[in-house]
Specification:
Layout lengths: L2 E5 L7 H12 L5 E3 L16 E3 L19 H6 L8 E6 L13 E6 L4 H4 L1 H7 L5 H22 L3 E4 L2 H11 L4 E2 L18 E5 L8 H11 L3 E4 L5 H7 L4 E5 L6 H6 L1 E6 L7 H8 L4 E4 L14 E4 L4 H9 L8 H8 L4 H16 L8
Parallel strand pairs: 1-2, 1-4, 2-3, 4-5, 5-6, 6-7, 8-9, 8-11, 9-10, 11-12, 12-13
């Protein structure tokens, strides 16, 4: 079986790229088709792979900021030639599911989310702190993209969602059923530590919609120690909001991440995410998660068992959760056991099983 992998853009490191890294290991001979590729902005392991980029890769400043070029990405992926491939596996949060599938091939879309600014433009602009007038400017293009996106979804053979929240969005926007295969987490890297936690922890790209500002302001208000790991364009604003108990450590090497997770009091997850790999990594280290009660977090944060859920996305609500946090109420082994449900081995087993059924044209009731 000849396989091709398709990924939206390779100019940043995050959960989507973590999934892609596992797919690459599962299918080491498969080339990666993507719109743009910035080697210095992603893991070095991708530099050893066969990466095939579109003409969009040559546009000015596209590696640094690809969002202004949103209207061209559908044409980029439509232009790839997949002749000779038996299986196309797209890892989609943008437009890469819109490829032209050759006759006889199968297309499985691992859907991280239906494209945010296509289906939820108002909230996207608000989260990313773009000027409200931008809605008037790009609104007509977004209506066209909605029609394109729905048509592209109709051509996918099978959708797989990463969480219950994404499963509902796929049904709402694409009218398609999907099974759930949770993203792969390398739980073996993390172990519970009997040492008492010293700080609260955030590990994230520092961009507005992640709502790291809530954690920074809440810990500053309460005088609680918070370590913020990660980089992104929102860092200057976050630093301006922070007090002396908040420390920004930048990008943490993979080798240092387990110790950082193991020694925290709890992992703070204030955004509305489609899943969230970093919180599950913390759980694999036996640490509870304090999360906003929405999105993918509801698939693994059990209030009072694996963490604490706060109902309102506000500084006050998070402050109340942090103030009431008592680490002794949580059992590290129980938390880790919950995290093992999302281990990489389960992801691989379920995906291989699905591919086998698709290839053999078996009936898949969840699809």
């Amino acid at each position: 079986m000849k396989v091709a992998l398709v990924h939206d853009w390779l100019n940043q490191s995050g959960g989507a790229e973590d999934v892609l890294a596992v797919l690459v290991k599962m299918f080491p001979q498969a080339p990666i088709y993507t719109s743009i590729y910035s080697p210095d902005s992603v893991s070095a392991e991708f530099r050893e792979r066969d990466i095939r980029v579109s003409w969009v890769d040559r546009l000015p400043s596209v590696h640094r900021q690809h969002q202004p070029y949103f209207i061209v990405f559908p044409f980029a992926f439509r232009g790839f030639d997949f002749s000779g491939y038996d299986l196309i596996l797209s890892n989609k949060s943008g437009f890469c599911h819109g490829i032209r599938k050759p006759t006889g091939a199968k297309h499985i879309c691992y859907c991280l989310t239906p494209t945010r600014y296509v289906w939820d433009l108002d909230n996207y602009l608000k989260r990313e702190r773009f000027h409200p007038a931008l809605h008037t400017l790009i609104g007509p293009f977004v209506h066209w993209l909605q029609r394109w996106d729905r048509g592209a979804a109709d051509e996918v053979d099978y959708f797989v969602s990463i969480s219950s929240a994404v499963q509902r969005r796929i049904k709402r926007f694409y009218g398609r059923d999907s099974g759930i295969i949770y993203p792969p987490v390398d739980t073996g890297r993390f172990r519970p530590n009997s040492q008492k936690g010293e700080y609260f922890l955030v590990v994230s790209r520092l961009i507005p919609y992640k709502r790291i500002d809530l954690a920074v302001q809440a810990c500053t208000r309460l005088g609680l120690r918070l370590i913020v790991a990660g980089t992104g364009r929102d860092r200057p604003r976050l630093e301006a909001l922070s007090g002396p108990t908040v420390e920004f450590v930048g990008r943490v090497p993979d080798s240092d991440l387990p110790e950082l997770m193991e020694r925290c009091r709890a992992f703070v997850f204030p955004g509305r995410e489609d899943f969230g790999i970093a919180p599950v990594q913390a759980m694999a280290a036996g640490r509870p998660v304090i999360a906003y009660a929405a999105g993918g977090a509801l698939d693994y944060v059990r209030d009072g068992v694996t963490g604490i859920l706060f109902e309102e996305q506000s500084v006050n609500a998070l402050s109340d959760a942090l103030h009431g946090f008592k680490g002794d109420q949580f059992d590290a082994n129980n938390i880790r056991a919950e995290a093992l449900r999302f281990d990489r081995s389960r992801f691989e087993s379920k995906l291989y099983n699905l591919i086998g059924k698709v290839w053999n044209s078996e009936n898949i009731s969840s699809q």
